[in-house]
Structures are given as structure tokens and as C-alpha cells.
User: What shape does this take?
Amino acid sequence: MRLTRGKFYKIILFFIILLLLTIYITNLNLTLYETEEKYENLHKKFESLHSFFNKFYNISYPINYFLKFYDQYDKLPIIYIITPTNNRVETQLADLTRVRNTLWLGPKIVWILIEDSSLKTRKISSFLNDSKLKFVHLCEETPKDMRIQSSEKSWSKPRGVWQRNKGIQWLRENANWLDHNGVVFFADDDNTYDIRLFEEMRYTKTVSVWPVAFVGELMYERPICKNNKVIGWFRSWGDKRPFPMDMAGFAVNLKLLLAHPSASFSNLVQRGMQESHLLSHLVSINELEPKAKNCTKIFVWHTNTKKILRFGEKRLKQLNLSYDKYILSQV
Assistant: This one.
């Protein structure tokens, strides 16, 4: 059969169209494959981003908390925190670590830590240096006749009096270069503090006050307030106390403290009168500044660390085992 020129061109055109269609389908498959690959890569990136935000969420609060002070950082009054410490129940480092972790989150804080010792110990010096906080390390030993013996009640003698007075003495001796708009807070080493407490006290003009949990044989004690003034006290004992509150329940303006050289603590006052002895030199009840939503919010707990049970050490000797001195020094 003779192939005409017209049929020949039609066949050639058919194969050209078939070739172009094949190329198009191949490119389409490649495009779909690339699109799918791009989608998978994009999906992985979104998963990675989602994972990042999940992790960031866990650390975002302390970062955001600190950043909110960034613009006003230079104008923030400094908080001077006076903490007496000793190793009476062998949990000193554990207690101080909990306090340190809270102070890490707050801006413009100076930690004045006073050891109940005749000399500064290497353990506490290392702890403070590692903390990277702004600190002052002091020591003041409690007289032997005023030390609480194992057979005595924990409240039978005043604790931390000499150490707190040492901290106050340091403030007075270094007053020329301190921030006189700052605030002084007496923080025990075994209490638990909400970071928000420090911002409540930062702008104290006289003496600021707030509730404290787990004190006075109650779930909490607090000043009773009306129209942003203290008018009474929620407490169960100590009717003769002018200021029936815990040491962790107030902060003092530094300028006010420096203006009253006789304001200090005393080992001669009755039980529960340490706070009142100091504050009576500084303010009247009408001059107190209620904080923490008119003294209705709890930002500090008077927690107490129990003595560590060590009966197992007898068993260690029987097993010919002993503590590692390096590890023990970190406890």
C-alpha cells in the first residue's frame, strides 16, 4: 500500500504529539514528586518549629518575667536580702539552693548571707561564687551560751539575732555607696518564696507588710486591712506584740533603717518579739504599707527543714563502706 505524503505527515504529527504528551506526563510526575517532597520537608520544619515552641513555653515565664524590667532596669531600687544561715539540720546547702534558684529570677537583688560561724566556710564561699548572684558573705558566731542545745526547744532561744544585726551593721558601714531607695528584707534560709514577693516589696517607702503561711501555729498570719491601711492582725497568740508578724512578713526602706541607728534585733526580748523590737523603732501601725492585694495573697511560706535521719551510717561501717569526701562536701 502506497503511503501518501498527507498520511506520512499525519503519522509524524501523531508521534510528535505522543512524544510531547509523554514528556508532559513525565514532567507532571516529577513536579508532583517534588511538590510532595517539598510538603514533607515543610511538614518536618513545622514539626520542628512546634517542638521548639513547646520547649520555649516551658522557659518563657522566667524569661518574660525578667524582660519586663528591661526598659526600667537602671531605675529599679535594689533589694538587699539579709539571710542568716548555719548547718543546724545538715540541710544548709539544700535550703540555700532553693532560695538561690528563686533569687536568680529577680533583677537588682543583693544577697547578704551571714554564717553562724567564727570564720567564713569554704563550702558557703564556693556556693556563693558558683551562684553568680551579687552577694556579700559575712560571718558572726552566736555566743555559746545562746546556742540551742539538742535537748532544748527550737524556740527556747533567739535564732539569727547576731547574724541579722551583722547584716544591718554592714549596710550602715557601707551606706555611702548603697542605693538609699532600696529595700531591706530578712529572708530565712529555709523559707519558700514566690518570685512575685520581691516586686511587691521593691518600692517600699516605709515598711511594707503581707501575709505569711505556716506561722503562729496557724495556716497563715496576716495584717487585717481596710482602705489600704492596717487596722489589726489575724493571729492566735501574742496579744502584747505591737507587730505580731513573722520575720518574712515585712520589708524596710533602707533610708528609713539608716535614719534610725538604734533599730536592730535583740537577744533580750521575749519569744516572738524580735520583729516588734525592730519595727517599733521605725514606724507606727498607721505607717505600714499593705502589699499582696491588701494582704490577701500568699507569696511566702515559713517552711521548716527536718533533721536528716542517719541511722543507716552504722550499717555502712558493717559493709566496710564510707562516704566520698568530695561528694559529701556538696551535700
Q: What stands out?
A: The chain is about 40% helix and 15% strand.
